[in-house]
Amino acid sequence: MVQLRCHYLSFGVGETDRGYGAPAATRRLWRRSNGVGGDQTRCKNVSANPKKPQHIFRRDALRMCLAPPGVAVVRWLVGCGSEKQGALQPGGQEGPDASMKALADAQVDGPAVPWATGGTKSMQNNYPDPFMTGATGAACVLYPAQTIGPCYAQMPLTRADISDGLDGVPVRLSLLVVRSSGCMPVPDAIVDVWHSGSDGIYSAFATGTICNPSTQDVQGKTFCRGIQSTDANGRVDFNTVFPGWYRGRTIHVHFTVRLNAQGVVTSQLYFDDALSNEILAQGIYNARGARDTTNATDGLFLSGGATADQVLFSTAKRPDGALHAWKVLSVG
Questions:
Q1: 214-232 residues labelled b (16+ CB within 10 A) or e (exposed)
Q2: Cβ–Cβ contacts within 10 Å for residue 88, how many?
């Protein structure tokens, strides 16, 4: 048992002064949603009487505090937790208390299964929402800009699966676009991603170039490139394969976020070195030998004034052996 005082949760739909009670927009969201059922009503009832703490099981508290499916928990303004629990504030990184977060993370972490092979066709796609756990890192801190690099190609396709059938470890990229001021979700943002294929070359470039040093002719190929618009909750998901290494760079994913046809941030995302080493030791990746550059030796990894926490993906291995990587992209 844990004594909780259930205040309100902001799901990115409205502001209020500090204190008890839910803003009108949040109340409307609750009335529209069926995802939390009776617990949702309990949370509202407790909010209406904040002076009277309720005794509820920790399991039920977690269910009450999570948004309905498809609603991203971008920040917890006051939160549903103990009186001393921290909240994810603009510019801050606090989330649920340690015990609540551990329980939430149990819904995100996958079992110890082998890494999947064969690309995205092996993905089951029934993955939990990582943004529902509070595990968002430096969520409200402006994402640092980094170079676009030489391998961007114009006119990428609008699609969720950008793998074009490539072999390799399947990857789900989940990105949540928020405003750095207020940490509110940004709907209808255009997210453009591109990265090297599992063999370490970029599509759309001629042989013998810096983006395609191989002998493969991939000028007419589009693998590992695509764009999508964020949904009403600021989220977008891509299915792809884990990038292969190439000389002089650590494993990374490029992206650009555009609002109203204007680019607001162009930068790169990275994977933890230990994770990259583990995947690069598998199957087709291992056949290419050891990479020559890691995060620690990559000159661009912390460029633009970045910290490692800002630019590293959060990750989990899913039960189907796919890698799930996610990040909150905070824009101005």
A1: eeeebeebbbbbbbbebee
A2: 23
Integer CA distances (angstroms), 206 to 81, 109, 185, 246, in order: 56, 40, 39, 16
pLDDT at 116 over 80: yes
Q: List C-alpha distances in Å: 226 to 155, 173, 192, 256, 268.
A: 9, 12, 6, 11, 15
Place of tokens 């990275």: 270
C-alpha 329: how far from chain center: 8
Residue type, 324: H
CA atoms within 13 A on the CB side of 22: 27
**Stated pTM of the model:** 0.70
Residue 274 tokens read as: 């230990």
* Mean pLDDT across 194-210: 97
Whether 189 and 198 have beta carbons less than 8 Å apart is answered as: no
Instruction: Decide: residue 94, CB within 10 A, 0-12 exposed, 13-18 middle, 19+ buried.
Output: middle
User: DSSP character for 141?
Assistant: S
The residue type found at 121 is: K
Give me the count of residues in the chain: 332
Tell me the residue type at 174.
S
Under DSSP, is residue 80 helix (H, G, I), strand (E, B) or coil? strand
Choose between 312 and 109: higher pLDDT: 312
Q: Which CATH class is domain 119-331?
A: mainly beta
Among 312, 308, 283, smallest CA distance to 118 is for 283
- Minimum mean pLDDT range among 89-98, 252-261, 262-271: 89-98
How do the domains of the chain map onto residue ranges?
Answer: 2-105, 119-331
Per-residue pLDDT of 79-108, as tens digits, reads: 333 333 333 333 333 343 343 344 334 344
Q: Which amino acid is at 148?
A: I
Say if CB 130 and CB 325 are below 8 A apart: no
